[in-house]
Amino acid sequence: MRTRIIVGILLVILLFVVLFFGGFLLLSVIALFSLAAIYEMGQTFRKKSYDPILIPAYVFAVGYPFVYFYLGMLPMFIFYLATVMATMIWSLFTKRHTTNDIIPSLFILNYPTLFLMCMMLVYYSFGRPVALVAAGMAYAAPECSDTFAYFGGTFLGKHKLCPTISPKKTVEGAIFALIGGTAFGFGMFYLQHIWGANFNMTVLVLLGLGCGLLSQFGDLFASLLKRWAGVKDFSSVFPGHGGIIDRIDSIMFCTPLVLCVFLIMQKLSIF
Q1: Which domain does 115 fall in, by range?
Q2: What is the pLDDT of the chain when averaged over all its residues?
């Protein structure tokens, strides 16, 4: 538990440093995390004797943050479509990959790739004060939810939540996850004033509650994939936490919700 807590604190510090400096550093970290996440998912499929086509996905992972930042949304979307088509065309001419490898290859371009794109957009789609609130809710609310769930389940957990998918998860932990997400939304209401944002408390608290709920689905979906593949973690890059996807699985499910809510508020001129 001690290692888990220390690594978790270091990751939070890294998050704040990267968001503070932004620019090329943030784009590079997004590309690196995307590259590692795609690699982990490829390795997971290989545990089940699949051999997904990953080179187009790797190229996309390295390039899409910079394409979006310097060229915009439409070029990034075209880049994504080109990557999907390149993967399918690749499958027509390769002797190494079988027809069975096509489905996992395309799956990886959706999970985690599309969710990673949302993680980037939730920060870059808004002005800095709004972006910090959106990124805080998308990245930190699920982490707060996970932390509450971990300690609530560890000390109070008695009733299994989904024993066939994740035997250690409990109903009590799930309830604490909702409390954790809600608590973060409440805290963000006060924290946002430091950089000049001013969102309604009800919006942030309800969004925190939504993140507390979706973070658990994200965690369970990742657990389902790991159980299918017969692995404990996607990798061991973070001691006590597992791999990149182990660390961001709950964030990936929360980010689309946060992105949609903030885009709707922007459209309605709420901020």
Answers
A1: 2-267
A2: 93
> How many domains would you assign to the chain?
1
**Segment 145-156, tens digit of pLDDT:** 998 999 999 999
The Cα 31–Cα 66 span in angstroms is 9
Contacts of 259 (CB under 8 A, 6+ apart): 118, 121, 122, 125, 134, 138
Per-position DSSP letters for 231-263, written without gaps between them = -SSS--SBTTTBSHHHHHHHHHHHHHHHHHHHH
Stronger pLDDT, 91 or 9, i.e. the higher one: 91
| DSSP for residue 217 | H
Q: How far apart are CA 139 and CA 158, in angstroms?
A: 29
The predicted structure's pLDDT at residue 217: 97
Phi-psi region of 49 (alpha: psi -120 to 50; beta: other; left: phi over 0): left
Greatest CA separation for the chain? 58
Q: What is the CA radius of gyration of the chain?
A: 19
At residue 130, the 3 state secondary structure works out as helix
Q: Strand 160-162 relative to strand 166-170: parallel, antiparallel, unpaired?
A: antiparallel
Residue 67 banded pLDDT, cuts 50, 70, 90 = very high
23 vs 109 pLDDT, higher one:
109
Which is nearest to 187 in space by CA: 218, 124, 145?
145
Contact 143, 178 (CB under 8 A): no
